[in-house]
Design brief:
DNA-binding; Tetracycline Repressor, domain 2; 9 helices; homodimer; mainly alpha
DNA sequence: GTCTATAATGGGATAGAC
DNA sequence: GTCTATCCCATTATAGAC
């Protein structure tokens, strides 16, 4: 595989496991099997690497969300799939998703990277809001309220549940924290 | 005031604004007006400072929760007060509370500090669970479900809402993310 | 595109005088 | 308890040969 992609893959794994400050070019060089200086050829500054990471991640998630919409007709099924994305990203409590890792390491990030992160959050909220608007129509979600507030609550819940789950190294915390959310999406709710 | 306390105060502010890696003994020395070496007299290692921070924080929150129970009789009023603790700690989007800052900076913390953090989370969940059990009795909270799951969901929601709110530097995100939670606590729900 | 070598910086930490 | 002076180390980053 292309060296640049290999670097991004290893860097992403490191960021999600140990945070943005938790890995250095030295670590990455050892992982990948090249020298520090060679990484600088692909990503002159660490901020360039961070930017490419969040850019690639945003694109990937965007694709997944489109796939979900193509595959699942009801709002409830779409939200279940969204929940599963966060659940799967936890990797048993060892990792968080890249957006949580970047939100957490916000103080070390440059402005362009933070802009990308905020853009990603905006896109997520927009997608969720649209799904909750659909929910108000198809009745597949119990107790619907304001779609934008629901969207922001969902994003906060997923990110917070990942955060505390990794702190405790225990996935069951994520499951408990999101249990009530998931139960609103029960197939039994479809009329 | 006592130097040790002054150091803790400034360190806490720095951690909550810029994260655990976002401040150094050099910064702290400049803020407080003494030399780096003098800080090492009070806190030999940075991990000692971190431990004292979370210890003091846990004690302070514990007092606040006891006060809330003494002051507010209903479960709904207690949860509203709990929500207000997190709301106030945001300081307009400039800060997060110490437990969120530490959860986010988890990779840089030593084991004793992480244990304190997890103990704090356990205590918070216990307190919330007790309140949600009370809610099932006094009927002051709408749509009650499993108390432990509710407790973990509440903690995750508060921490996640702070995280995304600080990333966007916008308190209104916290308010929107927690709006549905708060509306379940409306005084109108009391029977 | 990868390497060796080397800055340059900043952080945590210690010794020992006052 | 505070200071000056210093150490050690990790980290990011650059120069220039191959």
């Amino acid at each position: 595989m292309d060296t640049r992609t290999t670097l991004l893959d290893h860097a992403e794994r490191a960021v999600r496991q140990r945070g943005y400050n938790g890995f250095s070019y030295a670590d990455l060089a050892r992982d990948v099997g090249i020298r520090k200086a060679s990484i600088h050829h692909h990503f002159p500054k660490k901020a360039d690497l961070a930017f490419s990471l969040i850019e690639r991640y945003a694109g990937r998630v965007s694709e997944r969300l489109a796939e979900i919409c193509a595959r699942e007709p009801t709002a409830a099924a779409r939200l279940r799939a969204y929940h599963q994305l966060y659940r799967a990203a936890l990797a048993g409590g060892a990792q968080v998703c890249l957006c949580v890792a970047f939100s957490a390491g916000r103080d070390s990030l440059t402005d362009p990277v933070l802009e990308q992160l905020n853009a990603f959050h905006r896109d997520s909220v927009d997608w969720l809001q649209t799904v909750f608007e659909q929910a108000a129509q198809d009745g597949s979600v119990a107790a619907p309220s304001d779609p934008q507030a629901e969207a922001r609550a969902t994003l906060a819940l997923m990110e917070g549940a990942q955060l505390v789950s990794r702190a405790a190294k225990d996935v069951s915390h994520f499951d408990q924290a999101t249990a009530a959310f998931v139960s609103r999406l029960s197939p039994a709710q479809i009329h």
